[in-house]
Amino acid sequence: MENNTVEQGKTIAIISYITIIGTLIAILMNNEKKNSFAAFHNRQALGINLMFYFVGWFVGYFNNWTISSAFYVFCFVLWIFSFIGAVQGEQKLAPLVGNYFQDWFKNLT
Is the pTM of the predicted complex or chain greater than 0.85? Predict the structure, then answer.
C-alpha cells in the first residue's frame, strides 16, 4: 500500500478503535476521504465492537465466570492487536475473525 495513503488514513484508523462511538465517527470521517487504509481498520473495529456487544450479551447469560472472562479477554486481545496495527500503519487482520469482518462489512468504504 502506498505510504501516503497510510499516513492520510492513520488518524481515522486510530479513532475507529476508540469505542463504538469512535468507530461511527471514523466511518463518517472516511465517507468524505475514501481512504482504503482507514476503511480496512473501520471494518475491523466495527466487527470487534459488534462482537463485543452482541456476542458478549449472549455470553453474559452463562453463569460460569470462566467462559465470560475468556470471551472478554479474547475481545481485548483482538482490540490490542488491531489497534497496534493501526498505530504502526499496517493492515493486519484480527486473528480468527478478521477475514469475516472484511467480508461482512465490504460495502463500508
Answer: yes
